[in-house]
């Protein structure tokens, strides 16, 4: 693995706010405070054993304000870009004898204020965006119209994510809540089903079980609006088995210091976090999954892992000033990169073949990390049979009962009632991570994920 900050003029020395790799060509798109979108070809540094470099290809100029979020569609035929002032543009790839070019396809106008994050549905037919106007909007891309407005948040929506299995969408706001929406389709007159997302869970606070006669204290699970970043980019795993949520803030007790963390939600129960991944001293601002699925390495067979998946998934966790790379087969991170930028990291992206990982920053530069062939893992080819996680199976092993999550929706209340009933019936509780052997090395103890649960 080689990488570093690439010293080129990305966006006229102004902050680079977002980036994404094209899912087929591997071109890197970046958006910045210069109102522009630029496309770059990434050049390998393996032969010279140097840091990979980027070569400018062309610009997509249309926005009249800073570009905060951009994402290629799953097919790679379209690109969505969101900017200040509520601008949301769909670009379409056109192929001609002279080459390929991107042209404005749709201008989606409804957000009243800055668009901070966006995500495509798995089929590329819909798009969800989050905005400073406190709302999420689900767009029908082909019609270029608003399909549904999700307006439950009370502050900026700084992150949105679309379940790859199309059942859920999730949003994260500086109102210190994560909201999970479930699709309850409406049947139209012609018999076709229409997407209809309703809020199923609103995750807000955690209540620590009291020690002796002490009073229980409720702590917020997420940072407030003073977090020095406009982005809280959350992400679903490629198989939809779990959701990673950044900007976590957790206290073991009322007297302990706050820990910055990433929460892991199991698809089996999205009402509360199943795990947390403690990080460095700075808050987590973005998480992103590698798009590939890998064979198990088997090297950690003697070590109790946190996930029970028949394959490996790899994901990146970006704090304001560092990058952690995890996989689902190990407990500690498989790599940590720090001291990369002079200002806050804003976005993170993987290339389609797991060869590159890119970071953007407000300091006006981007970091490129290059992996050798199969260094991240041996990919599972699309033709190989692969057992995907189901709704009824949790991908997460350890879940101790030591925390209560406060929610404000009846669906979760019903779930809590059934959980209590199961306990009264004497059903065996899930094993606690506290009983799992963990290395005594200080470095590992600092970064070992901790399980939390109502």
UniProtKB/TrEMBL annotation:
Its main location: nucleus. Keywords: Chromatin regulator, DNA damage, DNA recombination, DNA repair, Nucleus, Repeat, Transcription, Transcription regulation, WD repeat. SUPFAM superfamilies: WD40 repeat-like. One of its GO terms (biological process) is DNA recombination. WD repeats lie at residues 16-50, 60-101, 108-149, 150-181. It is found in: Nucleus. Residues 410-454 are annotated as: Disordered. Coiled coil: none annotated. Residues 1-376 form the CAF1B/HIR1 beta-propeller domain. It holds the Pfam family Beta-prop_CAF1B_HIR1. Residues 429-439 have a biased composition (Polar residues). The keyword Oxidoreductase does not apply. The keyword Acetylation does not apply. GO terms for cellular component: CAF-1 complex; nucleus. It comes from the Eukaryota. PROSITE patterns: WD_REPEATS_1, WD_REPEATS_2, WD_REPEATS_REGION. Residues 416-427 have a biased composition (Basic and acidic residues). Belongs to the WD repeat HIR1 family. This is CAF-1 p60 homolog. It comes from Hibiscus trionum. The lineage of its organism: Eukaryota, Viridiplantae, Streptophyta, Embryophyta, Tracheophyta.
């Amino acid at each position: 693995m080689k990488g570093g900050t690439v010293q080129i003029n990305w966006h006229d020395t102004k902050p680079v706010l977002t980036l994404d790799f094209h899912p087929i060509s591997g071109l890197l798109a970046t958006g910045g405070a210069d109102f522009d979108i630029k496309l770059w070809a990434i050049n390998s540094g393996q032969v010279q054993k140097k840091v990979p470099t980027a070569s400018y290809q062309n610009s997509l100029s249309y926005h009249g304000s800073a570009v905060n979020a951009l994402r290629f569609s799953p097919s790679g035929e379209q690109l969505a870009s969101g900017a200040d002032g509520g601008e949301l543009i769909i670009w379409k790839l056109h192929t001609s004898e002279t080459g390929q070019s991107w042209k404005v396809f749709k201008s989606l106008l409804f957000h009243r204020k800055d668009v901070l994050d966006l995500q495509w549905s798995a089929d590329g037919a819909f798009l969800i965006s989050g905005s400073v106007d406190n709302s999420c909007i689900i767009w029908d891309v082909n019609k270029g119209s608003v399909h549904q407005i999700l307006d439950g948040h009370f502050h900026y929506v700084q992150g949105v994510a679309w379940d790859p299995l199309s059942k859920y969408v999730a949003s994260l706001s500086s109102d210190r809540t994560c909201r999970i929406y479930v699709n309850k389709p409406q049947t139209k007159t012609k018999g076709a089903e229409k997407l209809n997302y309703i809020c199923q869970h609103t995750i807000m606070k955690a209540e620590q079980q009291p020690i002796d006669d002490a009073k229980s204290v409720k702590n917020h699970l997420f940072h407030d609006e003073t977090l020095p970043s406009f982005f809280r980019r959350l992400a679903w795993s490629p198989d939809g088995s779990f959701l990673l949520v950044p900007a976590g803030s957790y206290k073991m007790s009322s007297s302990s210091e706050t820990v910055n963390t990433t929460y892991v939600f199991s698809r089996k129960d999205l009402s509360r976090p199943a795990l947390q991944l403690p990080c460095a001293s700075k808050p987590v601002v973005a998480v992103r999954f590698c798009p590939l699925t890998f064979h198990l390495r088997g090297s950690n067979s003697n070590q109790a892992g946190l996930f029970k998946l028949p394959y490996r998934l790899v994901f990146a966790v970006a704090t304001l000033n560092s990058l952690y790379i995890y996989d689902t087969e190990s407990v500690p991170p498989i790599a940590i990169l720090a001291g990369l930028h002079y200002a806050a990291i804003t976005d993170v992206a993987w290339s389609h073949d797991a060869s590159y990982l890119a970071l953007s920053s407000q300091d006006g530069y981007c970091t490129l990390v290059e992996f050798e062939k199969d260094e991240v893992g041996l990919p599972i080819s699309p033709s190989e049979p692969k057992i995907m996680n189901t709704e009824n199976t949790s991908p997460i092993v350890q879940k101790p009962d030591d925390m209560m999550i406060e929610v404000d929706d009846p669906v979760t209340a019903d779930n809590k009632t059934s959980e209590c009933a199961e306990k009264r019936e004497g059903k065996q509780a899930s094993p606690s991570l506290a009983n799992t052997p963990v290395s005594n090395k200080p470095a590992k103890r600092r970064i070992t994920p901790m399980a939390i649960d109502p």
